Amino acid sequence: MKISAIEFSFSYTFNTIIKNSNQKMKSKLEASTTIFHTMTELANKHEAINLSQGFPGFNPDKRLLNMVSDFVHGENNQYAPMSGVPELRASISKKIEKYNGRKIHTDNEITVTDGATEALFSVIMTVVHPGDEVIVFDPAYDNYEPAVILAGGITKHVPLIKSQENPDYHIDWQILKESINKKTKLIILNFPHNPTGAILCENDLDELAEVLNKNDIYLMSDEVYEHIVFDGNRHHSLACHDDLWSRSFVISSFGKTFHATGWKIGYCIAPKKLTDEMRLIHQWSCYSVVTPIQLAIAKFMHTYPEYIDTLSDFYESKRDLFCSLLEKSNFNFRPSAGSFYQLLDYSQISKEKDVIFAEKLTKEIGVASIPISVFYGNPPNEQKLRFCFAKDDSVIEEAAKRLCSL
Ligand SMILES: Cc1ncc(COP(=O)(O)O)c(C=O)c1O
Fold first, then answer.
1. Domain segments of the chain: what residues?
2. Using 50, 70 and 90 to split pLDDT, how confident is the model at 294?
3. Fewer CB atoms inside 10 A, N or C side of the chain?
4. What is the atom index within ligand 1 of the atom nearest the CA of 222?
């Protein structure tokens, strides 16, 4: 396998963008203010409960905040090493061994990034070159496609499906097989899934390995909700699987794990050969990430390793509260299996398009959500909205009360 980030230069990329950005691509990039920004602005304007953007409505653990404060007041306010402070890389390595059973090299296989977003961008810029195809599963988090376009690549949208035997969103392996061709360079996965809350089962990893058996396609696995999985299930990281690991970039976010999305700290783990390539982009786009917060997270993970084990229960009770309050409403739903999002189907209430209906809910009953159509290349005609339940119970109760009035 060969990727050519080594030959990469920013002038090359810039020229590539100019040359390869046809009008459709350009207008897509120019026109797109993210829906999260748009819905949050609308929520603020109408003083609505904001269940649209995916951020917790509460602060990180006080003990972690105190550690941040201590490190900020100590002499820890200059540039961190490009790959992340050694203490944090050591904590990440320990965590991966505990949860994924893989020993990864602290110096060679871990890169601390400016949130998962920077990791996603750096990986896409590393792997994707003009004309390459990238498979994303729709509905898909909306950050992937713009990065693919900027790299000169082409996004191929493959649907997650639901069936009678399996009514949860899942990958259809036959459809995936048929979508792969010689130009396919990268497949992007995201489980636990935003926006549907779907998770992978162990068998899925073997199925994926089987599909990829005879080609050298890379994998980028966005696992930012890895520690939020419900109903006694567990997260199956691509890092757990030997065959998949050799071609994978696995990305996570401390923003989601520590209720601190504003800190923008994440990481990318990958085998050394891939990490070396990815760091070539990371070093020029971001270089390094805020030092005292890295040190505080490292110390917190070391001192309170049990914190992460509490996260699924914490969010499961919020999911259960939201779902139980909506049981008698006119919304249909299957409780989310992971992440902190719940999809609600409003087809019994209205047949209006989801963007219109989401706006109406924000303005008229004061609850903001995200219309599911924005997560699709070609949106199906579905009446579904995504609600973030990472909020205080009183906020969830008030939002549910308003939703039950419909
Ligand atoms: C699936 C997914 N990936 C990545 C991110 C971005 O993570 P970060 O805030 O660490 O950049 C989000 C944020 O909502 C997300 O939902």
1. 22-53+307-404, 62-303
2. very high
3. N
4. 3
